[in-house]
Amino acid sequence: MGKHAGAPDKLIVSGKRLDGRKFNELRPLTIKAGVIPNADGSCSLQLGETQVLVGVYGPREVFPRHMTIQDRAALECIYGMAAFSTSDRARPGPSRRSTEISKVIADALAPAIMLEKYPRTKIDVYIEVMNANAGTRTAAITAAAVALADAGIEMRDLVASVAAGKIEDELVLDLFEPEDNYGEADMPLAMMPRKKDITLLQMDGNLSPEEIKKLIEMSMKACEEIYEAQKAALKEKYKVSSESVEEEAEDGAA
Amino acid sequence: MEQLKAHIIALLEKGKRHDGRDAMDYREVSVENNPIPRANGSARVKMGNTEVIVGVKLDVDVPFPDTPEEGILMVNAELMPMSNPDFEPGPPRAEAIELSRVVDRGIRESSCIDFGKLCIKPKEKVWVVFVDIYPINDDGNLLDASALAAITALKNTVFPKYDEKEDAVLYKELTKKKMELEFIPILTTFGKVGGHLFADFDLLEQHSMDARLSISCLPDGGIAAMQKGGFGTFTEEEILNLVDLAVIKGKEIRKLIK
Fold it and tell me: Which of A105, A147, A225, B11 is deepest in the core (most CB within 10 A)?
């Protein structure tokens, strides 16, 4: 990738990235479960300036009917970007890019979901990027796993996801927009942390096998960190405050 | 559904709602300014459990031939399937189109925006104001929540730089110019079931009611737009009564925009 108009002169200044991060540092991450009362499960995730919302419905009746699978649930993920989420207004509705991302997200989540427990039903995972600043597909996967768990759907594990890449010959974690646009390589990865099974891998750019190995290791380590944040978000939602326990006791007595 | 409707009517006979509100009470309303950094202006509105985010994006384009010296307002609503189990993915249907057009008229017809000021070069270049409505959770009355979020997002809008030579909007370079609103129009919507009228219906009430009336009112007590919806009817007296109420409720809600 050569120089583009509007590109910053340098992506690394005195050993630090343009937003002040170290090479193996995630952007600040906030995950909240149960943010959409109508949905069976939901999650909002903020990673730096990237904001993603996920709502899960199901297992429910299959629509359209021809998607029915006799021995397991059908999984449909729909990834979209809000019109105001990007610099230039994004036209609402599916594009070739969003259709592919929806598919790879479903492929990344499916191994974690016990679809065989819910034959002839459908699980809908609706993902909307509200503010985009690189890493939206990986943020979407991380958030969708939390929303699926929040929906009470039986799962083998959560799925944690992050991208890593190369900028100015340095390997770095969690690219943000200028690095994504003007860096040399980008490699999104998702895994089920318990057994370290990788469920999503994409790459574009130019990397040596040695660099790929290092990036996978860097991403897997970051996924462990993300996994903790996912679990904390779920615990936070299902935490029972002592007040509500007392209230319930009173209700029971009445 | 019939039982629910009978229950809602029985409560309204006593002037009450199923969630404890009086007939003309709104749910708790909150307004958050600029939750979306990438938008040129944005707002999040919560009305009880109903939540809507509206973002404004500005672009530069050729004006319509019949208004060569005026900017363009485009209001669009995406009824996201995550916000309501009954919403399906796909292009906007009648419900979404009605929502965006009612919000659009409440703003446009109030003349709170001077579209002449959005003209860069007559017949050639004007600002296009895209207002995109995204419900996050639909617990009824998306109309009022969307209209409030839309007008707040517009009020929060800052113009990006426009490079006339290159004919490009530089979204990363913001100017100090803010969207000028002459005043704030407020949309208030009322439901009707079994002859009873009530404000700010939630989703259960929305499913049960016969008709609704939306009224966009101005600070001086003027009315800028109205829309009746649903298969039911209103009497003349009811409409006049609701117009008066809309002005009072509008004043209360207008105070929430900061």
Answer: A147
CA B63 to chain centre: 24
Work out the minimum CA distance from A80 to partner chain B, whole angstroms.
Answer: 10
pTM for the full model? 0.92
Domain count, chain B: 1
CB contact under 8 A, A126 and B80: yes
A18 lies within 8 A of chain B by CB = no
Q: Where are the domains of chain A?
A: 31-239
Q: How far apart are CA A181 and CA A39, in angstroms?
A: 35
User: Model confidence over B103-156: pLDDT tens digits?
Assistant: 999 999 999 999 999 999 999 999 999 999 999 999 999 999 999 999 999 999
- The enclosing domain of B233 has a CATH number of 3.30.230.70
> Min CA distance, B226 vs chain A (Å)?
27
**ipTM of this model?**
0.89
Instruction: Give the C-alpha separation, B115 to A230, whole Å.
Output: 47
- Which range has the worst mean pLDDT, A240-244, B75-79, B173-177, B186-190? A240-244
Q: From chain B, pick out residues whose CB is under 8 angstroms from the CB of A126.
A: 80-82, 89
Fold designation for A31-239: Ribosomal Protein S5; domain 2 (3.30.230)
Residue pair A144/A43 in contact (Cβ under 8 Å)? The answer is: yes
